[in-house]
Amino acid sequence: MVKYSVMFPRKIKVCDAFGIPVYLDFSLIILLLLFVMDFGSFIYGLSFAMALALSILAHELGHALTARVFGYRTRDITLSLLGGCASLIALPRKPWQEFLTAFMGPAISFLISGFAWFSLNFLPISSPWTANTLYYTMWMNVMLGGFNLLPGFPMDGGRIFRSVASLFTTRSKATYAAMIVGRGFAILLGLRGLHSIVSGGGWGFISILIAWMIWREGWREYQIARMEESAYGGWSSWSARVSPPPYGGDDDEVEIRKN
């Protein structure tokens, strides 16, 4: 795998949120620049781009802070072209804990959308810039939360599916079922992206990249679940990535710690 040189870093640290390092992947910088250019207005493009980045960060903090409640730490959060990635040191082991950890990301997105809707309808807003930014934030968070609830394991919806399936079978079998469902979703998403490109759509390549991420990361997590069950009978801690981006890196190496 080709890595960026020191002069052209892959990601940069932008802040710490609740003690968690937050990184900005270079791919998201490109997306934010496209937002600035596509809207024709620098002010609107910049405000919408910032709203997008902050919404993704809030979504990932929903995962990270929920996991913290259950005693699981987050190594860092990375914002990339295809969303965010909260790299947990270990994923909550109990199905209901995994369910809540996965669900809280979309829940935060819907909460932000609701706040934007309330502001637009019940607060005195005289600035067109503020109104337009709130309107964009409202619909963008609806799409962000809704899309992540689709069963594309290891997206949030796929993790929710796995957590429910784990109530009825072993974790590895539940992961396999989630992977198969996720791969079916990935095929449909990839075909949609291909159709969009053939039809002249400008963003179909993002759907294809997301589909590839789901295909790759679902298999990775299934292998982790199999090794976990084989080595420790299902009782171990593994590093995990919630809402993972499709880029490999140093955190591709699995961290194992026996409880």
What's a concise summary of this model?
The protein is α+β, with helices and mostly antiparallel strands. The protein contains seven helices and seven strands, in the order E-E-H-H-E-E-H-H-H-H-H-E-E-E.
How would the blueprint of this fold be written?
Elements: E1 11-17, E2 20-25, H1 26-38, H2 42-69, E3 74-80, E4 83-88, H3 95-122, H4 128-148, H5 156-165, H6 171-198, H7 204-232, E5 236-238, E6 240-242, E7 256-258
Parallel strand pairs: 2-3
Antiparallel strand pairs: 1-2, 3-4, 4-6, 5-7
Helix pairs in contact: 1-2, 2-3, 2-4, 3-4, 3-5, 5-6, 6-7
**DSSP summary, beta strand count:** 7
Shape: globular
Q: How far apart lie the N and C ends?
A: 33 Å
Radius of gyration: 19 Å
Number of helices: 7
Task: List unreliable stretches of 5+ residues.
Answer: 1-8, 244-259
